[in-house]
Amino acid sequence: MSFVPRLNAFQRVFMCIFAAIAAVSIGVASEFPHHAPPKPRPSSVVKVILANGHGSGVSIGGGYVLTAGHVAVDGVVSLKNSLGVEQPAEVLWYNRDYDVSVIMASKPEILGNSPLSCRIPNVGEEVIATGSPLNTEFTSYWGHVNSGMFKSGMWKEIISLDMTIVPGISGGPLFDKHGNVVGIAVGVATFPFGQSPSLTGIGFAVPGATICKLLARS
After folding, report:
1. What stretch of H or E contains 69?
2. Closest-CA residue to 169 (of 188, 191, 149, 150)
3. What is the pTM of this model?
4. How far is 116 from 91, CA to CA, in rounded Å?
5. How far apart are CA 191 and CA 188, in angstroms?
């Protein structure tokens, strides 16, 4: 025979209050279900995969991806977003004199977008170069614009930066402090050193004003 303990009046009141609190807690939990955290969104910066090597680029909306002309001159295999997803792409056009190219993404919905600013960044303005230099991916570098627009070597209109634009980051965007694309990284200054040239800490970029001119934007 089982033994059922008797509860006094105080214990019975306490048990009723406890049951009521438990019922309310269950009801509140059912009204506010737990939601999974939002999925990360890809950035506008892409890695441009080539048959032999890679460059960088930036999506400006509508499936259009800007990169350097010398990156896309021999064709593009695919674009890789910051989440590691690749997609086929094709080169729409490139301009050898200005070293600018436009690529069309086949799946623009899996890319972020950044606005293109049709201006020349100011001397002394802080900018951020983002891309995939050497064996790294989607890294950023801070520097400043240290010249107005000028012509040099293969480039008709470029600006100089106090940052090194190493292979792989070519075609990547220069962002201003508002997240606007104000240029495309295209090269680095070198000087003779022994049998081969050595990289310096001076980089070159095509400014947004030039890119917009080529795209017939204002």
Report:
1. helix 69-72
2. 188
3. 0.80
4. 19
5. 10
